[in-house]
Amino acid sequence: MEITCSNFNEALPEIEKCIEDSLFVSIDCEFSGLNTVRNINAFDTPEEYYKKMRTNSKDFLIMQYGLSTFKYNEEENNFKQNSYNFYVFRRPVNRNLPDNRFLCQASSIDFLVKHSFDFNKLFKEGLSYLNEQDADKYKEHIDQAYNKVVESIENKTEVKSDSVQVPENAQSFLDDVKVQINNFLNGDDTEMPLPKCNAFFRRLVYQLGESEYRDKISLETRQVEGDRVLFVSRLKTLEEEKQIAKKKYEEQLKELDNFIGFTKVLKCLIKFEKLIVGHNICLDFFHTIDKFLIPSPDSYSEFKDISHSLFPKVLDTKYMSSCEPFKNLISSTILAQLLENLRKKPFELPQIVIEDPSKGYTVEDIKEHEAGYDAFITGLCFLGMWKHLGLLDNKSDTKTFQSMNLLEPYLNRIYLSGLTDNQCILLSGEDSQPSRDHVFHLTFPKEWKLSNIQQLFSPFGNVFVSWLDDSSAYVGLYKTEQAKAAYVSLRNGDGYALKTFASHRAQTATNQLQKKRKNSDPSTPCQRKKMDASVKSTSIDPARNKLFQESNSWT
Amino acid sequence: MEITCSNFNEALPEIEKCIEDSLFVSIDCEFSGLNTVRNINAFDTPEEYYKKMRTNSKDFLIMQYGLSTFKYNEEENNFKQNSYNFYVFRRPVNRNLPDNRFLCQASSIDFLVKHSFDFNKLFKEGLSYLNEQDADKYKEHIDQAYNKVVESIENKTEVKSDSVQVPENAQSFLDDVKVQINNFLNGDDTEMPLPKCNAFFRRLVYQLGESEYRDKISLETRQVEGDRVLFVSRLKTLEEEKQIAKKKYEEQLKELDNFIGFTKVLKCLIKFEKLIVGHNICLDFFHTIDKFLIPSPDSYSEFKDISHSLFPKVLDTKYMSSCEPFKNLISSTILAQLLENLRKKPFELPQIVIEDPSKGYTVEDIKEHEAGYDAFITGLCFLGMWKHLGLLDNKSDTKTFQSMNLLEPYLNRIYLSGLTDNQCILLSGEDSQPSRDHVFHLTFPKEWKLSNIQQLFSPFGNVFVSWLDDSSAYVGLYKTEQAKAAYVSLRNGDGYALKTFASHRAQTATNQLQKKRKNSDPSTPCQRKKMDASVKSTSIDPARNKLFQESNSWT
Known about the structure:
Two copies of one chain form a homodimer.
Chain A lengths: L1 E2 L4 H14 L2 E8 L14 H12 L4 E12 L4 E10 L13 E5 H9 L4 H7 L6 H23 L16 H16 L4 E3 L5 H14 L4 E8 L2 E8 L3 H23 L2 H9 L3 E4 L3 H11 L7 H11 L3 E3 H5 L13 H8 L8 E4 L16 H22 L4 H6 L10 E3 L8 E3 L12 E5 L6 H8 L5 E7 L2 E6 L5 H8 L6 E4 H20 L4 H11 L7 H12 L1
Parallel strand pairs in A: 1-4, 2-9, 4-11, 9-10
Antiparallel strand pairs in A: 2-3, 3-4, 6-8, 7-8, 12-13, 14-16, 14-17, 15-16
Helix pairs in contact in A: 5-8, 13-14
Family (chains A, B): Belongs to the CAF1 family.
Protein name (chains A, B): Poly(A)-specific ribonuclease RNA-binding domain-containing protein
GO molecular function, one term (chains A, B): metal ion binding
């Protein structure tokens, strides 16, 4: 089912119910750009991968979010699914919402257009969202404004602003406004709109009201068909004024709640601690947290803490399918091909039923790269593999789907595309540290090609080369046991320089530290300011709780 | 008339004819973001304005380009107009086209959507374009590839690439390919497509061909319905091979010519040295050059040289309408309101005729912020003012529109929004340097508001305050003759610091120079590299000629 700002509020209770009842949900996102593989090196650690990904992709947006909920029916031994396809885009319709600049990548846009993505719908009807930071700021703004108004009513003083010089070209406008106000005061109307004008002219009118009509009129700005319009009314009693202010404040709180939009769906996933399944989920997961919940921190360990605290159970089907016992049974881990594979022997999919005809897909829909469809397919793949694990363990379906024990080896492991050794981000603990004893850092003349490197190492078998630039690379031996012999034999060669992986990394770290020290010498006030800001880190531990407290206090 | 990639080639000859026949053209652009006013200060020089604008807006795109051509008919004393509305977007459909990352601003996207901009059309059917740099690279790529192929044919050697290790999961695919090739060689077909596969697998097939079928088959990759497919054919004679290579090269040249797309329209404007009219043209003009012709240089004077060399006659109606004799006759220089003004006495628009019913607007169309319509309205405003200048000079329309002398005071002056003294970029010479003797730099406590500053200067009349941050500002006296008295009286005050504008600017310049020197100490190879690159500046003088030489050599 397609969800935009026009049907979200109506659909939300049902979406929340589906999430609550589900055994797990699967997700998929479409982005305004990807481009995360730039400067990723095959021997990077997960931490290095995270930092590069963050830098490379932070400014891209999620434009479509797919969510598929799967509810297990024990009696019928089948899964009931509901799928939702959310268009997500925040228009900066009022001053409390940030006017984001965001990046697009031409190839990603082209890809989406080719898969029938509707950009007009996105930009016109996309659902709003607010991460913690933006929602805090929003709330602060309206609170401050409300408190200021209440205070000024109680002290019987106007909210004073600096007086502004009236420019020549505004005088005739103000003269006209005076005539209108005088006529209004002599008439019977309870209120009167003034001619539309820009913010500066409205300020001048407030100034005029303060100086010439202080005990006679109130002025109020309202939104009328997208324009801000000034309304004049007769001065009210203090109690009336307070009630008006309170009503306005409550409307603003409601508006804020409305702008939280899609974030509410994620808060529901957090609340029920559902297992979240995604295919090649790294970017989806990163952006889900960064855009909709908590801006992603620079620190990798902080990111892991935050995300594990929010989503304690995450499973990446790309990682799962690259591991035993699937690795050798599956020829391609590309989503569509993975499903093809899992629909054939020795695999078997459990029976899937669409719970509500308007809210489900079948495989035959072939809406590849519609986020909702891809989320659905991901859920199927996951079920195919889960069921297979149960069969290997001689478990009935019911037993299989009653316990998550079988999934333990795959849980909270995020696949990292392009790294060697099937490395992953382990959200719930320390990442593994595969040996790099068989890897060397090689510097060579620019003219060298792959064959030169292969030739150099040929006495020690085949090599895996991961280029750093046109005159350096990491070189890994397939025959790891040859590492020592290779190093002894090649370390003093002519025309190139060879280092162990460890010593090169140590050197790089030292260089970076020195550079950082040099830059962070807090000798200028500006730099000192920056440091202060970075010290004030967010408290991570209660990330979950914080999100809920706020959500409760707003609504 | 709407122009997309689907009707551009057909329409181009006529567009070129309209440009050639026109007395002038007017333009207007719609962007993916604006946001240029960030950190612009009212007392900035045009050079400072240019540099800030370049930094702030370089990554935005032009998404729609409006062009209106106006041809004067002396006998009928009217103008025949044709208007075109180009959707401009480059999809990175082949490897020679850069996969741009570009910025969008949520408010700009929202603005366009509200004015019925069709983003699906833009992304699906937008016209391609290539600036000089990208076109050069493109040409170089296909030339190099062609030369390499010809050389290898002549030397009877294959284009060798490094051999790649066949991974386990590819072996069954390659075995299958071998069976197919053997069957093909035993059959009668002249060629055979191989199963679709990714780039790496195609490389493995080429390797297989080289190692096992060297004297028997040729392999060629072709584009089939968006996919790259390998075709096997029997080995050809050298002459045949050369002809195939040449044909392919010619097709690629044609393809390149196609991708130059919208840039051709601008080359036509350059060729005929037409007067270009725009309203508040600064961003339009900057992006026109930067995106479609020559990437905008960091140096302001270089930018002026390049742009004046390309477009020797540019007129900004926003600037024109802010000058004498229009300044006091026109109440608003916002485009729609300007036209309203110019349709009333003492102004009079010349008669405008739509030359071709499918290619013109009337004022009543009210398609505000469709680039083509805004270009048309701009042209009307220009004509209203031009005719008025003629009337003031007692000239007949014919005489007025026969000579551009009347326009001299406005020519090549680009309006800069937000600067004092109606400053502009003078493309054809040195910018004016209005006196800043009545302006001071003031540093004060953070708590100060506008009223504190006004009070400080009150003995010397009203002031204009241009904030720099929350504790400093430039303060200009309206009574300029009070400058010396104010300085003498206030320079030694308590709780604030006052400097003349000149001395503050001198200080800032010195600080920047020192900072630059510190950073540019070429002690590391990386920095040295950067410096070498920056020394290799583009030759500006023949910017026009270069664009034409290349255009001729490609087509």
